[in-house]
Design brief:
Layout (H helix, E strand, L loop, with lengths): L10 H24 L13 H15 L8 H10 L1 E2 L20 H8 L7 E5 L11 H5 L4 E5 L3 H9 L5 E3 L2 E2 L6 E6 L6 E2 L3 H9 L6 E7 L1 H7 L4 E7 L5 H7 L6 E8 L6 H12 L2 E9 L4 E9 L1
Parallel strand pairs: 2-3, 2-9, 3-4, 5-8, 9-10
Antiparallel strand pairs: 1-4, 6-7, 6-8, 10-12, 11-12
Length: 305
């Protein structure tokens, strides 16, 4: 039998074949960049006009120099920057999972003796599903809670998940007064863009510079807005600003039972500062949480003594 070395495709057919391969390859590149499905890629749209109106309302209030417990500020947070828990069914990519975290949920659940109907806060909530430390408590233990996410574009994705939680579109301010701050977008690695430390961090992480303005309220202002000052579990993961936020919490006015706090390295100076600060404020360091088989966690677990 003779075998032909000629191409199996005619000249025009080969070009069409190459074009088809290029198109398919492009779709997979898009999938990798967006971390989403290839077909029917869609993101919830942000209403920029509405967002601008909210920011303008905040700017007017800032001109009056309001304090963190000013009634006009609390009302503005309630009306413009908070979404109430959703009653519609969940809209999750993986609806049958129980634990979406890297082991944090299980560790906290064990520490709290499988407590039912508690209250959580997750700061740095991202889209409310990917590596969520609190979705387990909401689905399995029937907790209420609050998800805080500053990026307004990501916040639309968070809203689309139909979490049974209060949603807050804000960063956590390290000062009592409200602010409007610069924020460098980076999906789950977004971070405020305030000083040289922030900018150096973005450079070290080799992230693209994509800065927007975001509202920023103190944790105490937000808690007043939702009438909740007792928290069973606080997940704090805000890409290197954790210690500053911890130092801003008025522990004499709020009760937080358990923390997981992201750290950089268990033995570095930043981690030691976090541990020292928490111990001075009545918390026992329990353990570091390195993660599980599917993902890495860099959290320290603390329990109120």
């Amino acid at each position: 039998m003779k075998y032909s070395l000629r191409p199996r495709f005619p000249l025009m057919g080969r070009y069409r074949y190459l074009i088809l391969l290029s198109l398919v390859g492009s779709l997979f590149v898009i999938k990798f960049i967006l971390k989403g499905p290839i077909w029917g890629i869609s993101e919830p749209a942000l209403d920029m006009n509405m967002y601008s109106q909210k920011m303008n309302s905040l700017k007017k209030l800032l001109q009056d120099g309001v304090t963190e417990d000013d009634p006009s500020l609390i009302q503005l947070i309630r009306t413009d920057f908070i979404n109430l828990p959703e009653i519609q069914p969940y809209n999750l990519k993986n609806p049958y999972l129980l634990d979406y975290s890297c082991g944090q949920s299980g560790a906290v659940d064990k520490l709290l003796n499988q407590k039912e109907k508690g209250f959580y806060i997750e700061a740095g909530a991202y889209d409310g599903e990917s590596i969520s430390n609190t979705l387990f408590f909401e689905k399995v233990r029937k907790w209420n809670g609050m998800l805080i996410e500053p990026d307004p574009f990501v916040f639309e994705r968070l809203k689309a998940k139909n979490r049974k939680a209060i949603l807050v579109n804000s960063c956590l301010n390290i000062k009592p007064q409200p602010s409007i701050l610069q924020f460098n977008r980076g999906n789950e690695m977004g971070r405020v863009w305030v000083d040289t430390e922030d900018k150096n961090w973005v450079k070290e992480m080799k992230m693209e510079v994509n800065v927007i303005e975001v509202p920023c309220f103190s944790l105490y202002s937000i808690l007043l807005a939702v009438n909740q000052t007792t928290i069973d579990y606080f997940s704090l993961d805000i890409e290197g600003r954790e210690l500053s936020v911890l130092q801003s919490i008025p522990f004499e006015k709020v009760h937080i039972d358990t923390f997981t706090v992201e750290y950089l390295n268990g033995e570095d100076s930043y981690s030691r500062e976090i541990k020292s600060f928490m111990e001075k404020n009545g918390y026992q360091y329990v353990t570091n949480l390195p993660g599980n088989k599917t993902c890495t966690a860099l959290d320290a677990l603390f329990k109120k003594i």
